[in-house]
Write a sequence for this structure.
């Protein structure tokens, strides 16, 4: 899953960096349940829900605009990266 550096910072502000997960899945996913709900990224909030695809697109676009607004307000350059790769880099 891809997320912005701002979303990753928000996630890690709410949830400690977990140890690497041997199955290469999300390290916050346990027994099919998310344990990082407070800090989860847009992709997790929207695309893993059961709703009409057009509704997902609308919600994703709204959340993305809000992340962009926050980044601009705080002069943060947004970058996108894959979640598991980002976590692996932080562990090094």
């Amino acid at each position: 899953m891809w997320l912005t550096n701002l979303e990753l910072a928000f996630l890690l502000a709410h949830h400690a960096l977990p140890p690497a997960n041997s199955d290469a899945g999300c390290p916050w996913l346990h027994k099919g349940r998310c344990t990082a709900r407070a800090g989860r990224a847009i992709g997790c909030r929207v695309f893993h829900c059961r709703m009409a695809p057009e509704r997902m697109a609308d919600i994703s676009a709204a959340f993305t605009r809000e992340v962009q607004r926050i980044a601009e307000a705080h002069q943060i350059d947004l970058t996108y990266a894959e979640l598991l790769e980002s976590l692996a880099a932080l562990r090094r």
